[in-house]
Amino acid sequence: MGSFEKFFVNRANRSTSQQAFNAIREQLHLSKDSSTLELGAERGAFPLLVFQEYSPRSVTVTDYDASQLESAKEYFIENLKQLPPTVDFRTANALDLPFDDGSFDAIFAFMVLHNLGSRE
User: Fold this and answer.
1) Which has more confidence, 67 or 8?
2) Could you give the 3-state DSSP secondary structure of residue 17?
3) Integer distance in angstroms from the first to the last C-alpha of the chain?
4) N or C, where is the chain less crowded by C-beta within 10 Å?
5) What is the pLDDT of residues 11-25, one digit of tens each?
6) 61-75: string of b/e by CB count within 10 Å (b at 16+)?
7) Where are the beta strands (DSSP E) in the chain?
8) Which CATH number is 3-113 given?
């Protein structure tokens, strides 16, 4: 991802993620045994909200840009003082995910459409 794209994706991190999270919170019911997937790590605010609110068994945060994953890890450490063992950060292409069907109870994809090209 270019620096121009990163600027726009990362500039409204916590407040935008909080607004999106608030919009779905009442409709989303996840048990402590659930697993979640975030497509497009941004700076990590949305997966952190999911982790803090639901404490799912696993949170997988993906991005095709490794530097975005590093930013997300830093965000978790900044807010939690550690990387929880139930949170996994993985480089992955949203159009070719390395996970079996049915692996997740909830999948989140905010601000990633600009990264998705057509499949040919």
Assistant:
1) 67
2) helix
3) 21
4) C
5) 556 778 888 888 888
6) bbbbbeebbebbbeb
7) 35-39, 58-63, 87-91, 106-109
8) 3.40.50.150
